[in-house]
């Protein structure tokens, strides 16, 4: 099927499209932040759904952790599912540094990233010999162990045991930032101004906004780094390992190095996510970093789209908001109230996980891309000297574009997508040899 | 010495329940080369069904147990048919995702239906102690649990070795394609494996909570699954007796190493199981009794 609009890569139109797209995206993010700086509620069928910036901030921490999972599961194809372990480690280290040594939140990145990277590498070394399902098992076990590790008596004085490590330091916006000015400007716009609240921002709201912008920038930096990583030599090696380990080794890829590197990066991202989490929540408690959180990260990974960077964003939103919204759903016509109490969010996530594996194996991002490919398509520049193929209707060109997607990423939507359309299929073909003995 | 024997008995009863869940994992692994991460939750769900049948419907506990096991077997068979069979068994990620989805689903449904307050499970075994010297007491519970495990392992083995469907199951687990070529119907055979595993798992969960020391609640099996998985890996993932031995060893490790030695704190029992699992996979991936994997490229 031909796309409605076709743009040549690096042509002025494609550039304009890209810049306008990014500009609108950033503007949207800023407007959204100001609109929801105070806790807003959306009411639907007598249910109140909270839509607050605090929860968005929490979801950013999940996004960064899921981004790490994208590296190790999505791009390297290793079933390392214990991301909550590193998430918790990062949270605890930074909580300790901030609470006991008066570090600032962002300074603690300097410790958390190397520490988590190192722990990830240490756990990655045995993983060189453990593959597939077994690795999934060990890493899930690791995630289950974390809460009891931080409650160890020997660690009590660093982690505060079962009560959790609480931190009171908050992110205060610098005085030069005219948050109030922007807010009152937005409020003065006719018609839509009412959506931005009224009056000055309270200090709580200012802090929330400032934290949101900081976290968003941190997330953007992480995404940018990972996008570059995936396109670089180690990133290509990782994808080769995912697609076929044996042939990757035959092509001269040093499996041990690239796999441990991937483990380290994934764990470091988990740690960064942990910093954001504890900076937002203000407490790191053992009950937060359980096996269930590890499984929730997997849900986020799969729902967003395995092997897509923007999938991490979708996934983070899903696992931060769905459990909350599900528990605030108390009225559904035709469903007795009894069935709407208890862990409905978990049930919903479980159903979503199974359903998406059947219906949309590439996650929500793959679905969106399919729709987008019908509307707009960016075609790579033909090599110099080649004749430009006749426009639009030629099916073979479309096919070759799809096959090329890995090499020439389409960076046009809100967040750069790296592996293109093929990623969903790639992942399915990444079968490692199964455990059946052939006799 | 007395303390040591007491710990030994503790380890025996824990290990026996791990062995039952490990057996369920092994049966599913033999059938579909898949580790069922939802096995613990399925077993917990089955135990709740038994509890409801016994307390609310007033059935005698052993009849409730058998009915509950049959219902779980049915659930297992349906899951295999609808959720597992559509996927390529060699491709691990979708299957892991499906079983994780089942994990969340069963856990949540149990939480919604039966809530999170712990419930006492009806007594299945006689109270009291068989023998005691000093602080070491061997309770009837421990004896009965160990007997149950041996009977179940023997029964499943006998079943697989003497019946026609057992033969088909062994053929399929040894070589899927060849057994297809000789005319074995793969689908129903694997379905049977899932049903058997679900029934054994339910028995395991019931036995686990059938002591006054424990109560049934939706998250009771989350930790047990990790212990059972290490037990299964230790015994070799495709060996039934290996699962029994592995379960007993893990139980012993948990109670003797963790509670007898003082330098490993009590909370770390789960960590020791994970470490055992890791060591086994690193140095002897086929476990104690498992078949060595041959990978062909």
Can you tag this structure with a few keywords?
heterodimer; A: about 450 residues; mainly alpha; ABC transporter involved in vitamin B12 uptake, BtuC; 17 helices; B: mainly alpha; two-stranded antiparallel sheet; about 5% strand
Give a topology summary.
The complex is a heterodimer of chains A (439) and B (297).
Chain A: E1 5-8, H1 12-35, E2 40-44, E3 47-51, H2 53-75, H3 83-101, H4 109-127, H5 132-150, H6 156-159, E4 165-166, H7 179-188, H8 203-231, H9 233-243, H10 245-250, H11 255-281, E5 283-284, H12 291-304, H13 310-328, H14 344-359, H15 363-375, E6 376-379, H16 395-404, H17 423-428
Parallel strand pairs in A: 1-6
Antiparallel strand pairs in A: 2-3, 4-5
Helix pairs in contact in A: 2-8, 2-11, 2-12, 2-13, 3-4, 3-5, 3-11, 4-11, 5-12, 8-9, 9-11, 12-13, 12-14, 12-15, 13-14
Chain B: H1 2-32, H2 39-55, H3 61-84, H4 92-114, E1 129-133, E2 136-139, H5 140-162, H6 164-174, H7 176-181, H8 186-209, H9 221-235, H10 240-260, H11 269-283
Antiparallel strand pairs in B: 1-2
Helix pairs in contact in B: 1-5, 1-8, 1-9, 1-10, 2-3, 2-4, 2-8, 2-9, 3-8, 5-6, 6-8, 9-10, 9-11, 10-11
